[in-house]
Amino acid sequence: MDRRIGTWRKSSKSGNAQGNCVLLRATGSGGVQIGDSKLGADTPTLGVDVNEHGGFITLVKSGQFDH
Question: Which 3-state string (H, E, C) describes the chain?
């Protein structure tokens, strides 16, 4: 993830799609904010610390949420 504070980033796997993407950005306090690309700059955010985010990514990569 790009660690520049305040810069929204989306997965390169999203291609050029502008909707239905999860956005991430680093915060100045060592956390991560998560937003929705459909809502643009007005997206509400969910804030988590970097360890919580890392744990979530580990579970996703392991297939924990696959149906």
Answer: CCCCECCCEECHHHCCCCCCCEEEEECCCCEEEEEEHHHHHHCCCEEEEHHHHHHHHHHHHHCCCCC
